[in-house]
UniProtKB/TrEMBL annotation:
Active site (record annotation): 113 (nucleophile), 271, 299 (proton donor)
Record-annotated AB hydrolase-1 domain positions: 35-299
Protein name: Proline iminopeptidase
Subcellular location, principal: cytoplasm
Subcellular location per the Swiss-Prot or TrEMBL entry: Cytoplasm
Transmembrane annotation, as ranges: none
Length: 329
């Protein structure tokens, strides 16, 4: 991987609806523009590990905390935040406003987990703004995927799913297991300040459980100790998942719009919470894509990260050989 360089520039971009999105820029100002889209939803840029996946001599590296999380303001759990304004089309609009603000004509997209959903959605909306795509832990946030990660994976972890579902049943009168969607129950519980703390802890535990295979076993994510992070993450995750990623029609049905864009799809065979069928189906419909399946990794891992770096290196070379400076910038 490359050095974890400090940002050259950063700021808060006030979006057209008044909410503010944090952004930062690293690498070469004359490099190939690339934007990193973090996971979650609500994961934020964290400790900026994403910059180590790009050659700073060849890339102009852009990162942003998606609205409602990280250093963007207001946060999802702030009463001033309009959760209804958190939709995938609105995130796409934020990206377009940021691209224009930075004077970028087109850029490379990188997305991890939920970020891969956002990258696909953005590319399908603006294929002329995309030079290439690298996705890791690939998702499209379809109803099938959401129902699997919140309900179906309970077949693998029945004792933990019992704890997870029992909390919702005890606190949300509208929820009945197997009769209504558990993700919708948690979305309601997390919007209520009276149940938010306990619900966020229950949701966080389930997150740690379902990614444990392929991640060396169960371990509590240290980010959960930050109450503000945990509340924003869980509110945003349940909000987007309860709406199936706000994708209508589903992203897989619109892949023909981006079939010509070069892409690398990287996924772990042991990703129980996000089975490899999703990147497989995406790859089958995407002629310019290459699918890389790591047999030992789950929802991330060292092998997948190595492929991520390699894919960006290859893409930078391809963009430089096929584009002129006006086309890139």
């Amino acid at each position: 991987m490359y050095p974890r360089t400090e940002p050259r520039e950063h700021g808060l971009l006030t979006a057209s609806d008044g909410q503010s999105v944090y952004w930062e820029e690293s690498g070469s100002p004359d490099g190939v523009p690339a934007v990193f889209l973090h996971g979650g939803p609500g994961g934020g840029l964290g400790n900026r590990g994403y910059v180590t996946k790009f050659d700073p001599a060849r890339y102009r590296i852009i990162g942003l905390d998606q609205r409602g999380c990280g250093r963007s303001v207001p946060l999802a759990h702030d009463p001033a935040h309009d959760l209804a304004a958190n939709t995938t089309p609105r995130l796409i609009a934020d990206l377009e406003e940021l691209r224009e603000h930075l004077g970028i004509r087109a850029w490379v997209l990188n997305g991890v987990s939920w970020g891969s959903t956002l990258a696909i959605a953005y590319a399908e909306a603006h294929p002329d703004r995309v030079l290439g795509i690298v996705l890791m832990a690939v998702t499209t946030t379809s109803r099938t995927e959401v129902d699997w990660i919140t309900e179906g994976v309970g077949m693998v972890f029945p004792e933990e799913w019992e704890r997870y579902a029992a909390f919702a049943e005890a606190h949300d009168p509208a929820y009945r297991r197997r009769e209504s969607r558990l993700v919708e129950a948690y979305a309601r519980l997390l919007r209520d300040p009276a149940t938010r703390e306990e619900a966020s802890q229950a949701w966080a535990r389930w997150e740690d459980v379902h990614i444990s295979i392929g991640a060396g076993g169960f371990a509590r994510d240290p980010r959960w100790e930050d109450e503000s992070f945990r509340h924003a993450f869980t509110m945003l995750a349940t909000h987007y998942w309860a709406h199936d990623g706000f994708a209508d029609p589903p992203l897989l049905e619109q892949v023909d719009r981006i079939g010509h864009i070069p892409a690398v799809l990287i996924h772990g065979r042991r990703d129980i919470s996000g089975p490899v069928i999703t990147p497989w189906e995406l790859h089958r419909r995407w002629p310019a894509s290459r699918l890389v399946i790591d047999e030992g990794d789950g929802h991330g891992g060292t092998g997948m990260v190595a492929e991520w770096v390699r894919a960006n290196d290859e893409l930078a070379t391809g963009v430089h050989s096929n584009d002129d400076s006006e086309g890139v910038h």
